[in-house]
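re the bet — no i am not wrong, look at it urself. input seq straight from the record:
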Amino acid sequence: MTQAQQISEKAYGITGQVSSLTLNALSVVAAKVALGGMDQLSFLIVYQAWILILTAFFITRGSLWRFLANKCGIGVVAAIVISNLAYYYGLQHLDPASHSLIVRSYVIYGMLISVLFLGEKLTGFRATLGLLCVLGTILCAWPDSPDPLRWMAAAITSFAALMFAVYSALLRAMPGGASVFSALFLSSVMLVPSLYIYTGSTISDVAGSMVNLPAFLAALFFTSSLYVYNISARYMDFFGVSALRAGSPIAVMILAYPIFGLSLTWFEFLGIIIVIVSLWALFSEHQLTRFMRSCLR
């Protein structure tokens, strides 16, 4: 592969990942609006039901079989189910700010998986920038006045972040014919009945909530986000993909703050600057290395 092709593929990967971040941020904003009119568990049932409906249009028996007949596929579905349950358990028992902060541990888990299990090379330069990305996300999500931290809920939320990283890594190992829509469909098939029974909802309750437009948009944007993530992640190493997720709170802030009339704190502003500069340096590593070497000659 020529250098021009490598640059082109890297640019395609970064563009896709940024698009995925934007779609995910739109999903978060839509979910926030939806949660203003329903409780979290009711939202989750409707959200998963819409994912089930949306993904049903893009699956085949062959794609479902490829997931069910593959150990990585079963792992992806299991990790999605577990991560969703753990994520919303944490959201129920932690204040939103603390919950958002702990979920950012996904970046750390993703970087560790890239080095320990995927065999990607970790240089001191990349490690430093990775830690700066983590610091930036912590500052972006730092709570102004958090409730006393509940350690069990915090641990479960961090476990949800680990499962997010695990299923993202496992998706990379799936054969090309396996569709991410199949994973979302199968996980929703398991989640919707479980949540329906757990909450004691009636069919009429669920049917009435299905007309909630923000909940539908949250599911649509999330499904699109994961699809774009999956097709563009193959053009980047997993360390870079995980580092880019540090931009998630920035995308949410850009979209959500004007809508909800919020203002940036100095912590958040500093976190945004650190993440942007760190990501720019990470994806300009070779150019910066050549520049530094030329300066030292």
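see?? DSSP finds 15 helices and no strands in the chain. told u. also The radius of gyration is 20 Å. so pay up
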